[in-house]
Automatic annotation (TrEMBL):
InterPro entries per UniProt: ATP-cone_dom, NrdR-like_N, RNR_NrdR-like
Gene: nrdR
PANTHER family from the UniProt entry: TRANSCRIPTIONAL REPRESSOR NRDR (PTHR30455:SF2)
Zinc finger motifs (unnamed), residue ranges: 3-34
Name of the featured protein: Transcriptional repressor NrdR
Family according to the record: Belongs to the NrdR family.
Gene Ontology terms, MF aspect: ATP binding; DNA binding; zinc ion binding
Cofactor detail note: Binds 1 zinc ion.
Keywords: ATP-binding, DNA-binding, Metal-binding, Nucleotide-binding, Repressor, Transcription, Transcription regulation, Zinc, Zinc-finger
One example of a Gene Ontology biological process annotation: negative regulation of DNA-templated transcription
Organism: Demequina activiva
Cofactor: Zn(2+)
Record's keyword annotation contains Metal-binding: yes
Length: 156
């Protein structure tokens, strides 16, 4: 890490702090040449391997744009989408891998999207899971209903 003041090629770490969500580390550094201090932020890289083999950095914006279409006309705003993208990133980072398949991102999107809006969820799932017929929709809806029923408190 070059010193931003004198371009010295070395620096000494004087303090390290991990961000609350654990996704980055902020370091205070001191230049041994000019004695000035500066900060750097390190983020663990998270790469996405696309179906065609291309590797690109994970992007919350891409998650949002991928989901936005499914949310058209639904009561979902940009804040909701930002929270969703954050949840997706957290669940992916929690897996602790530096590289993930694009399809795994789709899988990670499904649970928080379902919490957000079931219609948007069905739309997204139908594209992502390549529903081919009404039977696929029926099966997915039956699954949703069964899980909703199981999640409801016992009326007795
Ligand atoms: Zn310096």
């Amino acid at each position: 890490m070059h010193c931003p003041f004198c371009r010295h090629t070395d620096s000494r770490v004087v303090d390290s702090r991990t961000a609350e969500d654990g996704s980055s580390i902020r370091r205070r550094r001191e230049c041994p040449n000019c004695g000035k201090r500066f900060s750097t932020v390190e983020t663990a890289s998270l790469s996405v391997v696309k179906r065609n083999g291309v590797v690109e950095p994970f992007s919350r914006d891409k998650v949002v744009s991928g989901v936005r279409k499914a949310c058209q006309g639904r009561p979902v705003n940009d804040d909701d989408l930002a929270v969703l993208a954050h949840k997706v990133e957290e669940s992916i980072r929690a897996a602790g891998q530096a590289e993930i398949d694009a399809t795994d991102i789709g899988l990670a999107i499904l649970p928080p999207l379902r919490e957000l809006d079931e219609i948007a969820y069905m739309r997204f799932a139908s594209v992502y899971q390549a529903f081919e017929s009404l039977d696929d929709f029926e099966a997915a809806i039956a699954r949703l209903r069964a899980e909703d029923a199981a999640a409801e408190p016992d009326p007795s």
